[in-house]
Amino acid sequence: MSGLRVPVISLLIGEGGSGGALALAVADEVWMLENAIYSVISPEGCASILWKDATKSAEAAESLKLTANDALGFGVIERIIPEKGLGGEEFYTLLGAAITERLDFYRALVPTELVERRYNRFRAL
After folding, report:
1. CATH number of 9-112
2. Is the pLDDT of residue 19 over 90?
3. How many CB atoms within 10 Å of residue 56?
4. CA–CA distances in Å: residue 78 to residues 4, 10, 43
5. What's the maximum distance between 2 C-alpha atoms anywhere in the chain?
6. Which of 1, 45, 47, 88 can bridge 26 by disulfide, Cβ–Cβ 3.0-4.6 Å?
7. For residue range 49-76, what is the model confidence (pLDDT) as tens digits?
8. Whether this model's pTM surpasses 0.70
């Protein structure tokens, strides 16, 4: 995706992990729903590797810092999409407006600039 000459926004709606997480990172912006998680490994997999005990997944999850707030704080994502208190129609209306606003911004860029910005964003991670 790094070479695409069109805007790319990744939206994590549940769990982004492992190789899939890496693929999602190659975007102009990465967004997460507030209750989604984003990590290179699942908490169960991490606990199994580190402690040989998958029941320590809660401890692993805390160490992995995989929440939307963590990812935003580390600069891994650009936006958290709120979920609480929103009905389906309201949620999708707000999400659609946010996507449209960012796509309008990226469509104004020359394609080579768009690709270069995406490359630099990914390299900065």
Report:
1. 3.90.226.10
2. no
3. 17
4. 19, 10, 23
5. 51
6. 1
7. 999 998 999 999 999 999 999 999 999 9
8. yes
